[in-house]
Amino acid sequence: MDLDDTTEQAAYRTQVRSWLEEHKSEAPVLSGPGALQDEAEIIAARRAWQGKLAEGGLAGVTWPKEYGGQGLGPIEQVICNQEIARARVPGILDAIGVGMLGPTIIAHGAEEQKSRYLGSMLHGDEVWCQLFSEPAAGSDLAAVQTRARLQDDGSWRLTGQKVWTTNAQFASYGLLLARTDADVPKHKGLTMFILPMDAEGVTVRGLRQISGEAEFNEVFLDDVALEENAVVGGVGNGWGTALTTLMFERVTIGLGGEGMGYNSTRFALAIARDEHARDDAEVRHQLGEISSDLLAVRFTGYRTLTALQKGQIPGPEAGLAKVTIVNGAVRAGDLIADVLGPDALSQDSEWAYMISFLPGLKSAGGTEEILRNTIGERVLGLPPEPRLDKGIPFSELRSKEGAPA
Amino acid sequence: MNLALSDEQEFLREAARGALSRFKTLEAAREALDGDQSALPDLWPMAREAGWPGLLIDEDHGGAGLDAFDAMLVLGECGRVLAGIPLLGHLPATAILGEAPNAASLLEALATGERRACYLPVAPPSDVDPRWTVDSAAGGRRADAPTLASDGADARVSGELAWVPDASGAELLVGVALRDGRPVGVAVETAAQGVSVHEARRYDATRSLAHVALKDAPATVLDAPEASLASAWHLAQALIAAESIGSVETALEVSVAYAKERHTFGRAIGSYQAVKHSLTEVLRQLENGRSLLYYAGWARGGAPGEFPLAASAARSVAGRALDQAARTMISVHGGIGATWEHDAPLYFRRAQLSRRLLGGTGAATDRVAGELIAQADAA
Questions:
Q1: Nearest-CA neighbor of B3 among A257, A253, A264?
Q2: pLDDT tens-place string over residues B339-356
Q3: Closest to B260 (Cβ–Cβ): which among A293, A382, A386?
C-alpha cells in the first residue's frame, strides 16, 4: 500500500510540471485581478489553451497515440490533473468530449469518424456536447423519445428535444441518442448519432438555474437531416454505445476524487476564518462529520484508481461517492451560511453560488434515488423493482402512458 | 500509487477469518449476556498461535514486524464475529514499548503472547483542549492524565482511568503520565502495589472493560519519544474503527441476505426502494469507512503528520456506520430483529458501547475539525 509515485510516475510528473512551468503564463486568467469577463472571450481563450495542452501532451493522456493521445494509463491522467491544479491553471474546456465522448467514438466509431473528429476534439478546435437526457428520459434513459426516421436514400430525419446539455451553446458537435425503431422493446430500438450543432432545425436555448446562470441548455430538434454516416456503432445498438459513455463518465467521476471543489480543506478554511465558529462545539462537530465523509471520497478515488491500473472497470458503486460529495457539500453550505449569516448569500459569494448549484447537482449524472436502485441491485444483488416495461414494444408502452409514440 | 491489499494481506485476512470460524462467538456472546461469562471462549491461545500479539513488534524481538494496516485487518475480522480478543489493549501498548529502547527486554514475551499488555488510553491535546486527558467514570468532562513523581530511580504513577478496554487479565499496563506537566511513557506491572483493576463490563458482554486506579504505583519510565505516545492514542482509534467496520460488514451481509429471501405482498422486501435504499446507505457508510482505514493505515508510516486526522476520521465514520448498520439490521428484519432470538441485538449492543469508548466518536469527530482548522491556519 503506497501513495507515492513509482520512478516512472515521478519522471512523468516532472515532465508535466516543467511543461506547465514553461507555458503557464499563456493560460487564460479566469479569476482574481485581470480575469477575463466576457463569456465569448473566456470560451475562445480556454479553447486555445486546450490546444496548447494537447500539443504538450497534457490532454487525452489515456487516448491511444494514433488518435493524438499519449497512450498512457489512468494514473498518468491523475498525475496530469494534479499538476494542472497545482499550477493553478485551467484544465481542458471540453472535459465531456475528451473524457467521455471521444473514448466512446474510439470504442464504437468507424475509422473515418475517428480520423475526422478526434483530432479537432482533442485540440479544442471543435467542442462537443452530450445529447442523451430528455425531459421524459433521465433516470430511465432508455425512454428517449427523440425520433430518427430513415429516409429512402439512407439518410435520417430527427425530431425531438434534449435537455441538461452542458456546452451546447458553443459546441460544434453532439453525440445524440435517438429512437430509430419504436416497435421493439425500448432498449433495442435506439441508435447513436453524431449531430452537427449548426445543422438546420437545431435550436439551443439556455436553461437558467437557481443561481440565475445558464450552465445547461435545452436543444430542440425540428426535422433535422443527418447523413447515413452520422450513425455511431450501428443502427439499433445505441443502448450499448450509451453504456460505454456512461462507463467513461464513472471513470471520470472516480478519478475526480473530491472533484468539483467540494473538499474538506476549502470548507475548513471558511470556518477557521471565523474566530467564534472555529471554537464552537456544534460547528466543529458538523465540520468534522462532513470533512470525514469528504476525505473518505478522496481515498475511495485512490482505490478506484488502483483498480483501474489493474485493468478492472469501475462499477456502479462509484455513484456512492457522488452521493457523499453532494450531500456533504449541501451540509457544508448550510453550515457555512449559518456561521456567516445572510452575507453568505450575497450575489458575489462563492457560497451563494454553491448553495444554489447543489440542489440540481443532486440529480445530475443520475438522481440519488436511481443511483441507490442501481447500486442496491448491481452491487448488493438485491432483487429489482418489478418493471412494467420489460419486453414491451416502446410504442405500446407509450400508448399505455396515454401519449403517442 | 497502490491502495489495495497485498497478497500477504489477503492471506492474513483469510487466515484470521478461518481461525475465528472455529469458535461460536455469537452464541457465546448471547449466553454471556444472560450472565454466563464463562461461555465466552478464551481466544488468546488462538491469537498466539496466529502470531497476532506480536503483529506490531519487530522481528528482532520475536514479532511479525507488520504495520498498523495489518493489525486493522485482524481487528476487522474480530469485529465481523464479535470476537473478544484483547488486541485493542495489547497492540497500542506494544507500539509504545517498541519505540522505547529501554523496554526492549519486555518485548519478546509480549510478542509471543506469553504475557499480555494493556494500553492505558490517554488522549493527546487538541487545538481547543491543551491537556492530556482520560475518559471519566461519569460526567461529560474529560479527566486529567495520571501523574508521575520520580525520585532518582524510583518512579511512581498515580491516577484513575475509566472504561479501559482489555485491562482485566493484562500483566503490564502501558500508558502516559505527566511529569512536571510533560508527558512521558510509563509501564506498570499490574501485580505491583498500588494498582487496582476493577472489571466494568457494560451492555456488550463481549467487550472487556475495567476501571484502573494507580496509587503511587511503581513505574518504569519509558524513553519512548513523545510522538509515539500521541500516536498510540490514534492507533487505538484506528483499531476500534477497523473492528467496527468489520461488524458493519456482517450486519450488512445478514440484512441483505434476509431482504432477498423474505417476501411481502408477493415480492422480496429487498425489491422495495425503501428497503433497498436503507441498505445502500449502510454500504455507502461502509465504503467510506473502509477508504479511511486505508488512509489511516497508509498515513501512520507514510505521512505521520496526517495520522491524527486519518485515524480520527476513520473512527468518526466507522462509529456512525456501525450505529446505522445495526439499526438497519433490526428494521430490515422487522420485529424479530429486536429480539433475543436474533443476532441483530448483539451488533446493536456492540455499536452503542463502542461509540462511547476511547473518548467516543464525538471526540474523534471534533479532532477531525481541529486538525483541519490547524491545516487551514498553516496554509
A1: A257
A2: 999 999 999 999 999 999
A3: A382
